[in-house]
Amino acid sequence: MCPEVMAALVEANAHHVPGYGDDPWTRRAERLFRDVFETDCEVFFVFNGTASNCLALWSLCESFHGVICHRHSHIETDECGAPGFFMHGVTLLPADTIGGKLDEQAVRAAHQTRHDFHAPQPRALSLTQATELGTVYTTSEIGALSAVARELKLSVHMDGARFSNAVASLTVSPAEVTWRAGVDVLSFGGTKNGAGMGEAVVFFDRERADNFRRRCKQSGQLASKMRFLSAQWVGLLENGAWLRYAEHSNRMAAYLERQLERVPGAKISFPREANAVFVSLPEEAAAAVASKGWRFYNDVGPGGAARLMCAWDTTESDVDAFIADLLSAVSPNVTPG
Ligand SMILES: Cc1ncc(COP(=O)(O)O)c(C=O)c1O
Model-level pTM greater than 0.85? Predict the structure, then answer.
């Protein structure tokens, strides 16, 4: 946890307050979200990203609906079928593109399934920002996809587990890249940017938020001691820590990418646009650094590249230590400089 979040939690622990979100910390966090997004949005706090995505989508869909998403999206590949489970059978309609970003053609192709009553009816479009492959949709790309969604009568959900990194990368306002570009509901990630746990579900279209608290309760996501989720957001949002940390982790990823150029055989797989670097490494080098304790996935997206993530507290020396281990694995006689 970053110090701002820890400090807010310690402060929130000082007194007793009413439960289930009827408390000053939750009110303060809600106000901060409205300031950050420059609109009267409705905000809810849940424990994790899977629930945040599924509950957000559930508020847009009936069980017979379909959600268009990327083939490599977290909801499709990494939530153990939770969208179908939460939404009582809703179908995911995966679309494919290279690089993790959906485009108009892919969305239209996924939408062109049968529309008679024997088939699931497409009802929502879910975009991940930043994407699972570390790329970032520009504001105009989101605007164009939202326009297609409107034409096809789809609501727009954004999986923003790394939304902060996307905003830092684009240097735009959060409003510009969400509701002003046509996003209806955002799952805003805290855990990957300095929070201990917790994600916020932000409804720009307040009508969609009807019964959301009931859905949270029913699915075990309504925290009785809500202030310990919401206070973390006060720590992140009040003095801009969320953006500073996201800028920092993006900067560390840029540094890591530059350092990887020194490693013979290392090849960057996707454009590095936020805090993730995807790199294809010689097999023996990947195994050697893993044996020294470095941990990374190599099954996110196509091609088996190592997914290297930089965090809010990654330092240049962390990167240097990793690169030194990689260099000694690929060329044992070279002294890292
Ligand atoms: C794109 C994306 N969405 C959502 C999540 C949230 O998942 P969790 O339920 O583990 O908090 C993750 C976590 O890896 C993710 O990468």
Answer: yes
Kindly report, residue by residue over 216-246, the tens digit of the pLDDT: 999 999 999 999 999 999 999 999 999 999 9
Helix (H) or strand (E) holding 308: strand 306-309
The C-alpha atoms of residue 222 and residue 45 are separated, in whole angstroms, by 8
Report the CATH number at residue 258: 3.90.1150.10
- Does residue 128 have its Cβ closer than 6 Å to ligand 1? yes
Question: What confidence tens digit (pLDDT) does each residue in 147-156 have?
Answer: 999 999 999 9
Q: How far is the CA of 51 from the centre of ligand 1 (A)?
A: 9
214 and 263 in a single domain? The answer is: no
Entry field: residues in the chain: 337
Residue 308: give the domain boundaries: 243-330
Distances (CA, A) of 168 to 73, 194, 314: 21, 15, 16
Which mutation among 54, 73, 80, 159 tests ligand 1's pocket best, with the greatest number of atoms within 8 A of CB? 159
125 and 210 together in one domain: yes
Per-residue burial over 260-270, b if 16 or more Cβ lie within 10 Å, else e, is beebeebeebb
DSSP 198: -
Close Cβ partners of 242 (under 8 Å, ≥ 6 residues apart): 164, 193, 194, 236
Q: Is 161 in the pocket of ligand 1 (CB under 6 A)?
A: yes
Nearest residue (by CA) to ligand 1, atom 4, is 49
Q: How many domains does the chain have?
A: 2
Indicate whether residue 48 lines ligand 1 (CB < 6 A): yes
